[in-house]
Amino acid sequence: MPTPSSELYRRIPLTQGQFALVDVSDYEWLMQWKWFAHWEPTLQSYRAVRQMKLTDNKQTAVYMHREILGLKRGDKRKGDHWNHDTLDNRRSNLRIASNAQNCMNRRKRRDSHQPAKGVEKLPSGRYRAQIFIGGKNIHLGVRNTVEEACKLYAESALKFYGLFHCLG
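RE: above sequence
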């Protein structure tokens, strides 16, 4: 994705010194609310969020990317960021995804000791490639090098995950 031109987007200030990027056409509409930077430990990144009062006087969180995509409270679909930057809420970076598609687009966990997403180093020193499809872990094969196993995973991810594949 190309570097955003400042003429095509605006920065919405958040708390904790953070900013959310949004399209010029969404800026005024989104500025009617006070947005906060909410740290997501599982993603190791911030999201733009605001509070909304419910009819029973309770409050709930509303995520900016879901607001932009028109995903209402209770809608099980997810808002997915193409480039994995959770504060880049320009429409060209957002898409609606099922939970499964959103999982396909996840990066390798930062706390993982494995060499790459979908690749596991075996005690023999060889590398096993595997992919998660339809609730099952599918064995793709064992290769001598991490590069060969990564290639095997990449081919399968593109085939099974399509536009939601993520290799990182």
